[in-house]
Hints:
Elements: E1 3-5, E2 11-13, H1 30-40, E3 44-46, E4 53-55, H2 57-76, E5 80-81, E6 87-88, H3 90-93, H4 97-103, E7 108-113, E8 116-124, H5 129-139, E9 148-157, E10 172-182, H6 185-206, E11 212-215, E12 227-235, E13 240-251, H7 253-258, E14 261-263, E15 269-271, E16 273-280, H8 282-291, E17 308-312, H9 320-336, E18 341-343, H10 351-360, E19 365-369, H11 371-376, E20 378-383, E21 389-393, H12 397-422, E22 424-426, H13 430-438, E23 442-447, H14 451-460, E24 469-474, E25 495-502
Parallel strand pairs: 5-9, 13-25, 17-18, 17-19, 22-23
Antiparallel strand pairs: 1-2, 3-4, 6-8, 7-8, 9-10, 10-16, 11-12, 11-24, 12-13, 13-16, 14-15, 19-20, 20-21, 23-25, 24-25
Helix pairs in contact: 2-6
Amino acid sequence: MAGVAGRGGRRKEVKKETGLGLTNKKDENFGEWYSEVVVNGEMIEYYDISGCYILRPWAMTIWEIMQKFFDAEIKKMKIKNCYFPLFVSPTVLQKEKDHIEGFAPEVAWVTKSGESELEVPIAIRPTSETVMYPYYSKWIRGHRDLPLKLNQWCNVVRWEFSHPTPFIRSREFLWQEGHTAFATKEEADTEVLEILELYRRIYEEFLAIPVIKGKKSELEKFAGGYYTTSVEAFIPNTGRGIQGATSHCLGQNFAKMFEINFENEKGERAMVWQNSWAYSSRTIGVMIMVHGDDKGLVLPPRVASVQVIVVPVPYKDADMQGIFDACNATVNTLSEAGICAEADLRDNYSPGWKYSHWEMKGVPLRIEIGPKDFAKNQVRAVRRDSSAKADIPRAELVEKVKQMLEDIQQSLFDAAKQKRDACIQVAKTWEEFVEALSQKKMILAPWCDEEEVEKDVKARTKGEMGAAKTLCSPFEQPELPEGTKCFASGKPAKKWSYWGRSY
């Protein structure tokens, strides 16, 4: 690869002798390292419109694996898939004032058709509340029409920002968005947490990333919503939190605006309670940032499109046909057992080059078969996460490989949790808070839960690195001893909250 594109799609020439290996180290230049890994690992290709990226099959498979899991789970909850148009009329978009103010700078507009100006410009959806809810008011008439539970898998466009980053902050991204309506607040509250638990599972069980479940502050909640819950991840290398996925209770605000009313069992008019919830292709970026290393991507086995790569190791005078046959047989045996395995039999690359190539792409396990392995009826397995090697008799191949993949999945999660936990600092005073922030920590602090105080913290921490803000108040609250003061205002503290810089 001659060049690696930096932020915003600018091409930078990178000198490489072999065309393999990264020129930036994760600990030394994180931003450049990330830009390099996503391209060299064949996750994305830069596109000629800044902030838009081509998702290559290596990335798309990860999205599909998560999609398959989540789609099956929401179907168990009797949520049905649908599809609404990409375009939004301005009158509908501006109906819910608070909501659209929250998105206004990011809305992209279509103003021309061919050479002629459109009489009325058309917006491209930044999210679909205003697209969908006029139709909810049409479809919901009585209590028998409830609950209405829809989800769509689609793309959205959010245009305004200065530093596009593949997966993390792009102008067009993939997501699912669920939009549900209920007769009662209790039903809505229950679903919010059921969905949040599915998001936790995506991160922890599939992507091997520890997350914190909690509630957003009033300042950070979804514009126009009642309350917002989220799963929050943390990137130790940059000292930034990252919102992993959100599940919002919208309350009755949108029902009021869009007149989504129903006749309840007593024959009275009532307004519905609504939720909306989403996770996006940002999840993939979080995975790359957390697990990647100086050799490239590190994929958790549960989301890897290739879990095992089989590489023949030629030797002069060796029975190469026998070794190739053994490689193919190994792939067949593993594939039949439900393991995603492939062989790299290309003869124009050396084994060393292949090792580096598949390490760059993050394949969890490499199997090498050379003359000695062939003679002993065994294979050599090398783990991507730890580089640990093990010789496996062919008779035990499936059982041992399955065990190794499970171990890798768990090890990645354990290592990520250990790193994240080492970055969590408790701060009870402003001085401790500022010190922890300068050390790139995620800070757990007692807080009075007042919006003005949060705004003040943002203002006082504003700098080159960006201001600190609340990430979430965790559902699992540590004990708050009586008389505990807020770290920022000195008023009585009401809860513990996580704070930090964020993406």
